[in-house]
Specification:
Structural class: alpha+beta
Largest sheet: 5 strands, antiparallel
Distance between the termini: 61 Å
Order of helices and strands: HHHEEEEEEEEEEE
Number of strands: 11
Number of helices: 3
Radius of gyration: 20 Å
C-alpha cells in the first residue's frame, strides 16, 4: 500500500514538473495573450518612484511637454511623457514613464492607446523597464484599428544590449457602447535577426531616438 502511494505521489510530482516546464512564464509567451484592458477604464496611475534630483536635471530635456488633450490626460495620471506621440486617423498612442536609469533610459514606462480621444488601454499589463525581458520597442500603427508592437525578450545569458528574441504582438482596437478597448490578438516570437522578427536598432528603440537603448 505504501509503495503504491509513493508511486502515485512520484507520478503526480513528475506531471506537475512537466506542466510547469511547459507553462508560459510571461504574458508574451502565449499565442493569444489574455485580456487585461476593459472598456471605460481609467488611465492607470504611474508607479511611485524615488525622486533623484541629479537624474531629474540630467534627463529633464527628454521629458516631452504636453501638446494635446491625451498628453495632458496621461500627465495628469503622474506619467512623464515619453517620446513623440503617434496618430493614425482618430487613433493616438502616447508614451509615459515614471523614472530614469543612470543613462536616462526610461523605467516604469508604458504606452497608452486612445481612440477618438477616449482611453482604450495599454500595450502591456504592467509597466516596463528598459533592457529587461518584455520591454516594448516602438509601436507600429498599421491602421486606425490595428497596431503591432515588438517586445525585447532576454534569455538569462543575453547581454543587456542585445536581446536574443523579439516577440511581436498584434493589437486590434474594438469599439462598443462602453467605449473603445485595445485587445491583443496574437503574439509571434522569433530569434533576433530573422526576417519575421522586428528589425531591432541596437537594444530597445523608442519614439524619439535612443532613449530605450
Amino acid at each position: 500500500m505504501h509503495a503504491r502511494t509513493a508511486c502515485a505521489f512520484a507520478i503526480l510530482a513528475w506531471a506537475s514538473a512537466s506542466a510547469g516546464a511547459d507553462a508560459p512564464t510571461s504574458w508574451l509567451d502565449r499565442e493569444v495573450p489574455s485580456a487585461w484592458n476593459v472598456p471605460g477604464a481609467k488611465i492607470p496611475a504611474a508607479p511611485k518612484a524615488e525622486p533623484d534630483a541629479v537624474l531629474a536635471r540630467q534627463c529633464a530635456s527628454l521629458v516631452r511637454p504636453s501638446a494635446s488633450a491625451t498628453d495632458r490626460a496621461v500627465a495628469a495620471a503622474g506619467w512623464k511623457l515619453l517620446g513623440a506621440s503617434q496618430r493614425f486617423g482618430d487613433t493616438e498612442i502616447v508614451g509615459g514613464q515614471s523614472a530614469f536609469d543612470g543613462m536616462c533610459r526610461p523605467l516604469g514606462y508604458q504606452f497608452f492607446v486612445f481612440s477618438g480621444g477616449r482611453f482604450a488601454g495599454t500595450v502591456s499589463p504592467v509597466p516596463m523597464d528598459s533592457r529587461t525581458d518584455g520591454a516594448a520597442q516602438i509601436p507600429q500603427v498599421v491602421s486606425a484599428a490595428e497596431l503591432t508592437l515588438p517586445f525585447s525578450r532576454y534569455a538569462p545569458s543575453d547581454p543587456l544590449c542585445c536581446p536574443s528574441r523579439i516577440t511581436t504582438v498584434q493589437f486590434k482596437l474594438q469599439k462598443g457602447k462602453a467605449g473603445p478597448v485595445l485587445a491583443a490578438k496574437g503574439a509571434t516570437s522569433a530569434p533576433t535577426g530573422e526576417p519575421r522578427a522586428a528589425p531591432p536598432a541596437s537594444g530597445d528603440p523608442q519614439p524619439s531616438g535612443s532613449q530605450l537603448r
